[in-house]
Write a structure and sequence with these properties.
The protein has 361 residues and is mainly α. Helices cover 66% and strands 2% of the residues. It contains 14 helices and two strands; from the N terminus they run H-H-H-H-H-E-E-H-H-H-H-H-H-H-H-H. Strands 1-2 form a two-stranded antiparallel sheet. Helix 7 packs parallel to helix 10 and helix 7 packs parallel to helix 14. It is globular. The two termini are 38 Å apart. The relative contact order is 0.15.
Length: 361
């Protein structure tokens, strides 16, 4: 929106030309999101408390979490709205990728909002049924997959799975690329949701992975950088750099209130939306496997649940003391801040490994 204003004012003051640069708009988008989050956060927490919109703790969870019951939740609404506002202010609104990622993020946010509302309304930790949640997620993900499949037609390796660290190696998928898109979006959304079980545990990895994906978007959308680095050039996808920057700003602003001990939880409205946002950006820049690497914490959390459920159904034995994985370490005696920070450190390492793929080919 402000990009159009800058174009108009440039005719009178040449200095406004600086707002055409992606890097400048990304920085301003991040700062705008951070400022909005910090400014509105205290008011939001007070409103949630006044409305008695508090977290419902699962009965079979760690006993140390029982004291968190009643902590304001659905704080992810602030994250989603802040990302949307900041992106609309600093993004290029003529760019199709911007509208797609916003639509997916907001759509999954609505699903999460309804899920949180059900939990609060009925006073239990189940919320929307798993079948209903997957159904609505699938509708949005299938529509997004269809659009991306159409847009990637004609793009080099547009319908292939790029193998990182290897030059000019890609696996042709054809229509299977649309299936992969669906799995990445839905899978990442639910994996981030499973990770969001401790104060600040999920939001920092989201910020780190989102920032790295923003860099991939920037170089993929630049014909010179993409050719030099040996990655597919995707016209227009560089604008997602601004979107990813707003994720970073909004995430850090939320972490200010969500850090241990949390004043507010993001709830499903935030976790599902942010996970879907990471998934759709990764697919748009053709870095699905890189997301798998950089988001290793999300993968570990999701796999721990799958293994735990599968083992119990097949053998009536548990692999972990409790799933998702962060609860396992809590029950082993790790203090909550220790689990959180160590998972953050792992994410930093994995993000660096993922970024290294830009040069190792």
């Amino acid at each position: 929106m402000l990009l159009y204003l800058a174009d108009f004012l440039e005719a009178y003051v040449s200095g406004f030309n600086v707002f055409k640069y992606l890097t400048m708009r990304a920085v301003l988008g991040a700062l705008t999101a951070l400022t909005i989050s910090l400014a509105i956060g205290p008011w939001m927490i007070n409103r949630l408390s006044a409305k008695q919109i508090g977290q419902v703790i699962r009965e079979d969870g760690p006993q140390s979490h029982l004291s968190k019951a009643g902590t304001p939740t659905m704080g992810g609404t602030l994250i989603v709205v802040t990302i949307a506002i900041s992106t609309l202010l600093w993004g290029d609104l003529s760019n199709k990728f911007v509208w797609l990622v916003l639509a997916v993020t907001l759509g999954f946010g609505v699903i999460g909002f309804y899920d949180d509302y059900q939990k609060i309304k009925f006073g239990n930790s189940k919320g929307l049924s798993a079948r209903g949640k997957i159904l609505f997620q699938s509708i949005i993900a299938i529509v997004a997959a269809w659009y991306l499949f159409q847009w990637n037609t004609g793009v080099a390796d547009g319908h292939s799975l790029i193998i990182p660290y290897l030059k000019d190696v890609a696996i042709p998928l054809g229509i299977g690329s649309a299936v992969l898109t669906y799995l990445v979006i839905v899978g990442t959304s639910n994996a981030v949701n499973l990770t969001d079980g401790l104060d600040g545990l999920a939001i920092m990895p989201v910020v780190l992975v989102g920032g790295a994906l923003g860099l991939f978007a920037y170089v993929s959308g630049n014909v010179n950088f993409s050719e030099y680095l040996g990655i597919p050039y995707i016209q227009g996808v560089g604008e997602l750099f601004v979107f990813c920057a707003t994720i970073g700003g909004a995430g850090l602003g939320f972490l200010w209130f969500n850090t241990y001990p949390a004043q507010v939880f993001m709830g499903d409205v935030g976790a599902l939306a942010l996970g879907a946002a990471l998934g759709v950006v990764a697919v748009a820049v053709k870095q699905e496997l890189i997301l798998f690497i950089m988001g290793g914490i999300f993968v570990m959390e999701a796999v721990s649940v799958i293994l735990q459920v599968g083992s119990y159904k097949l053998r009536e034995k548990r692999i972990f003391r409790m799933a998702p994985l962060h609860h396992h370490y809590e029950l082993k005696g790790w203090a909550e801040p220790k689990v959180i920070v160590r998972f953050w450190i792992i994410t930093v390492v994995l993000v660096l490994v993922g970024l290294a793929s830009l040069k190792i080919r």
